[in-house]
Amino acid sequence: MTLNELLLEWSYRSEKGYPSLDSPSDVLVLKEILNKLDLPSDTILNRLSESPPPPSPLSVGELRKERDPHRADIFLQKVEKGEEFELMNGSKIIIDKEQSAESLEYLQNKNFPSRLKLTFTDTSGNIHSINSFLKTAEFGAGAGSGAGSVDTRIMESAHCYGCAIAYYVLNRNITKEDLIRENFEQASSHVVVDASIDEIEAFLERKPLWYESTVKSVNKIYELFPNKNYKFHRGSEQVERIYNAWKNSLERQDKKLDQYQTMRDDKWNPSDIWLMTDKVSNFDWSGNLEVLNGQISQFYEDSDLIGVSLKMIGKNAGAVVKIFNDPGIPPGNVYEYEGYKTTPKSSGLEILYTGGSITCRNFDVVKGWSTEIKGKAAQGGKCGHTGVNDILKINNLTELPNQQGTVDAFKENNQEYYNKFYYLYDRFIENINKEDFKVKYDESKLSWKTGNYMGLEFLSRLEDNQEKRDEILNDVMRYASSATKFSSQFIKIS
Hints:
By secondary structure, the chain is of the alpha+beta class. 45% of the residues lie in helices and 12% in strands.
């Protein structure tokens, strides 16, 4: 495997289609690739991480700092709006206001206790100390700790500029040679983005693989939606208004989403860039989710609003377009359960379905358990622990155990968890007596225990409920590909 091939493979398997060393799941993917190539993965990863400073946790001291705005107020505003917080382990949570009332009162009164007392409970019931929160840019992190999100912002803005060059500067398909400052400047009045031309030029020079990918994506957009007076948006006020309509919908506020109550914004609509005509500007979006999704679909039908999810396109690949959540196409159960695959050495397992598989494993070292779709349906799409539990709940099945509780149980060698693990391992992985299992258990890392246990718990729900497993499987697929019954229309270019 050449270096370019390695980078393409890593990109292909990464969550967004482009890898980041700030993403724990992307780092794990790279480590797997390096190990398969018999390369010193730990040494390589250490060297790769030497340059940027490591992510740092949020602290009581940071929240105490007298800034304008006060960082405690920023924290409170995020909680009030139901926005996600990123944790040090790479996962994202939403804080439950009622269960975290005491700590929130501390922040409101600017009465800062010790870090041990400042804890917050998320919507899944997990408790997090303040030091488990990632110190992001809004709380004063430097460029080093948010490099992945910075690159995302710039990459998506580059696509907006590329589209504007095709539509307004050249009136044709673009080439790599067209992505130059002169054209960027001419196109600038047709983009509303949060990255500068200088940043985009530096990014494309630093990430040459994105040159070709950007060109292919832009030309596919130009081919599909010609002759429209678009502005190309990324992170703009207009985009924020669309997502605020979703966030503040009556269904979410009244907790009437019978499934996916904690669904993230990108599972409603994962679009990275938006094409908008003047008809959409300052449109009065509905507070009813069904109506809101209908408005977005109608604008799409009229080619006045196009949400686009972007994935990296390989050097020798062409741009492929798929439309998601077209109201004229009923979702239905299109995938069938075909079994599972695992080995005694594996720290996870694969659920097999028609056309691909679902990997079940930790995306952090010992927790961050998630499912990841492999196959044509939703390559790289994930349905995490919370999403899986939402799906199990609406199917009237027992939810998966709490992740932190599971980690703590295996750290403490909890007998109940141990006995259940032995039963599941013996049933699904290999027939083994208790004495041999005890030896294997004692010799194994915590990551092997937690990853396997959670995956086997999920597998048992499928194997023990044959009449429901296809429905569960399809719900996971829909969630991973942002195609739930609550999701809105978009296209994916990959």
